[in-house]
Specification:
This protein is mainly alpha-helical.
């Protein structure tokens, strides 16, 4: 989810509230983990090409081992051909 917030604490609070509402509507369980990232400084426009999420892993795994462990599978992957 993308939220406009004045601080990290506000962004986390917004994410926690959204996840609680979504979970209640969908009969899901909310885990005790929220990640927040600043994606712009000040009033910069967020638009096409703006990175909104990125994770780097420093693991001693081959590419295939990494994908076997962390890829959520074809149900969660969309490719454009």
């Amino acid at each position: 989810m993308l939220f406009r917030a004045r601080s990290l604490d506000e962004a986390v609070a917004l994410a926690e509230r959204e996840s609680a509402e979504y979970a209640a509507e969908s009969d899901f369980e909310v885990l005790d983990m929220v990640q927040a990232y600043r994606i712009s400084e000040g009033d910069e426009e967020v638009g096409a090409g703006t990175e909104v999420f990125s994770v780097l892993h420093a693991l001693d795994l081959s590419a295939d081992e990494f994908l076997d462990r962390y890829d959520s599978g074809p149900a969660h992957t969309q490719s454009s051909e």
